[in-house]
């Protein structure tokens, strides 16, 4: 992906786009990547919490079934 980004930037420079447009594209790409990273962090936190709760409920079910056996 890094090579692709570098080659794309070189193409933009070769096309002689104004520097402002090139920098705007770079900034927008960075912002999108930053947003994606934070969304993934939020999803992992949310799913981690759900998995923890499922694990706790499973443990309570196992403990309840052990009490029933006794």
From TrEMBL:
Superkingdom of source: Bacteria
Protein name: Uncharacterized protein
Native species: Eiseniibacteriota bacterium
Lineage, top ranks: Bacteria, Candidatus Eiseniibacteriota
